[in-house]
Design a protein that fits this description.
Chain lengths: ~375, ~375
């Protein structure tokens, strides 16, 4: 049974407006999932996310398996109950975080052995364990375990990673017992031929959706966009396509045009904590001297609770003085901005107006803009 | 004209249920004002405070005069517009913060000269300047400039501080041009005779309300409670009494019984950021090992958004891992708890049931409690 339905298509691009039915939410796509690494979206209350009609968040299997550990999450009755989040949850498989441990991990055909930097504890993550964890989490969308090589890497290393990811995808598919959906992940770096070779056998495994992995791991922006578009074209139109870990508001629009349906990214929260706000006029780096006396909101067109009340000058003063509220308020604005931006994209597709939606500038906003 | 009205009195104590009319809000007393030092209540959105029916917050003249400075606040049209807060604001006079600069300040009859530790800039704060600043802020309640000696201090030093505070109170009263209410501050340390001597001439100046200053600056708890009760008894029944910088939930109830109407304190937000939660069963220090697997909420009787969704185990995990959401969620709970606690106190007075209201324990909460 297909849980994904395409409701309308953009005539001028590969963009589509769809609906992904999950156990806890009906996810309207294209959709951005705020990142809740340890079960909390940093600086943003779940009440706010619900109020803003956020249907799904991402949580990280790697972090949750280390702390608080699967036993407590089982005892709580699953990840929804443990987190206190009632809508959809997508978990990554833990693969990406483990790979980034570099010298602290060793990949074999069986799985990946690693030592957690947090406490030195040893773990062995296999496709079967990644499935068991996510089944016990009882998440709405689970991800197959994959191997994501860093950038740059030798072609041979990327080819091997794609090959082992494929074998692990098969084991993941076989081991997964639900209750949610399971997505496979396409690897192959920036090499179109490797991506193409990996796609057919991956699709044969019959996942509920497909992720484009190994993107935005350090490549230049034009390579990210090229390989995203190429990869999306390899994936079946009738299944949701998920671009992992991307990106800026402009990246999201470009990727939607390439046919991507789901996104997650730490940018709105991480950049918010660092003092960067996304706006329709570009990025506002709030500490900048130019905002010292600027009594206009972060984005005059934004309806978020921060823009409705506070000025750039107010936020700048709090940020410069390291007031605890400052990173919170910027994170709030950014997450709202991302969710609103995706709603605008969805409405534009449904209304046949995506072609006229302007890409928000990525440069810094000018004074008084 | 008296802006304060006593609506009902507790037969068994000096507690009263009242209403203080200000330009931006009708403040139901006894009332707790969350502290917004730099114009933000750390970790708590203003939307939440409004939703929780918080009528007034405190902001610090000292911090605001240094940054962003009075010019910008004037340009914004006052402190309400600058902060984005629509209800009542009370500002302290700046005196308390300046006094705590110790070696960096020098008190003369004219005023207090100080160097700001933040940037080394030199300032001269007089009663007239403190009034001008608060008038330009256009706050609902302004405070006279006073001298608050530290604890312990020689009796002679406290007597001199009380005497100069009285002369500055007179100058404050004369200089203040509104638009809000102006409160005088009673000093005299833990010496009842000094407090009594200072009270009569202070009351003669005819303030809109009176604060008990110089309390909770380091004295033992029993001294705080004794001198609070004694001082409250010196102040007129028909004016609001404000105990500055106090205290725990138990302190608030005890002080209400002594006749105090208004409070402010950094405890709920500061302790929240440090991982301490106030509950009806005592204080929860969330990092404690005993909460590792505790799936109950911070306070099972609390209706705050944190207790409605999250467990102690969830919050502990976030706190131990220094997740940005953890101090925010504990601050939210604490401020909600304080506001609810004051509502319970008000309802108890109005319902003639204050005597049966139990003082919440101040010790740490036991496992599973």
């Amino acid at each position: 049974m297909n849980s994904f339905r395409v409701d309308s298509e953009d005539p001028a691009s590969s963009a589509r407006r769809g609906t992904l039915e999950t156990r806890h939410a009906s996810i309207e796509t294209p959709c951005f999932l705020p990142v809740g690494t340890r079960g909390a979206v940093k600086g943003v209350e779940f009440d706010r996310l619900e109020e803003w009609d956020c249907r799904a968040v991402l949580a990280n299997t790697y972090h949750l398996m280390l702390r608080p550990g699967i036993d407590l999450i089982r005892r709580a009755g699953g990840l929804h109950a443990f987190m206190g989040w009632r809508r959809a949850i997508l978990t990554d498989s833990g693969g990406f975080q483990v790979m980034s441990l570099a010298s602290r991990r060793r990949i074999t055909e069986e799985g990946v052995e690693f030592r957690a930097p947090e406490d030195g504890s040893r773990h062995f993550l296999t496709p079967e364990l990644a499935m068991e964890l996510q089944s016990d989490f009882a998440v709405d969308i689970a991800m197959a375990l994959d191997v994501c090589p860093p950038f740059p890497a030798e072609r041979e290393e990327i080819a091997q990673a794609a090959a082992i990811s494929l074998r692990w995808a098969e084991r993941s598919r076989r081991a997964f017992a639900g209750p949610g959906l399971l997505f496979g992940i396409l690897q192959g770096g920036t090499h179109e031929d490797l991506r193409r070779e990996a796609a057919a056998p991956l699709l044969d495994l019959g996942f509920d959706g497909y992720a484009i992995g190994g993107v935005a791991v350090g490549e230049p922006k034009d390579a990210i966009r090229r390989i995203t578009a190429f990869s999306a074209g390899l994936l079946p139109k009738e299944r949701p396509r998920y671009l992992m870990g991307v990106g800026t508001p402009a990246d999201l629009l470009e990727s939607v045009r390439a046919g991507v349906d789901l996104f997650d990214c730490v940018l709105p929260t991480r950049h918010g904590r660092m003092g960067h706000a996304y706006t329709g006029h570009g990025e506002v780096t709030i500490k900048h001297e130019r905002f010292r006396s600027d009594l206009s909101p972060l984005d005059p067109d934004c309806a978020c609770p921060v823009c409705r009340r506070h000025s750039r000058a107010y936020l700048r003063n709090l940020f410069v003085l390291k007031d605890f509220s400052a990173p919170m308020l910027l994170s709030l604005h950014n997450v709202f901005f991302y969710l609103s931006w995706m709603r605008r994209i969805r409405d534009a597709i449904a209304g046949g107006a995506l072609a006229s939606l302007e890409v928000p500038p990525e440069e810094k906003v000018a004074l008084g803009a």
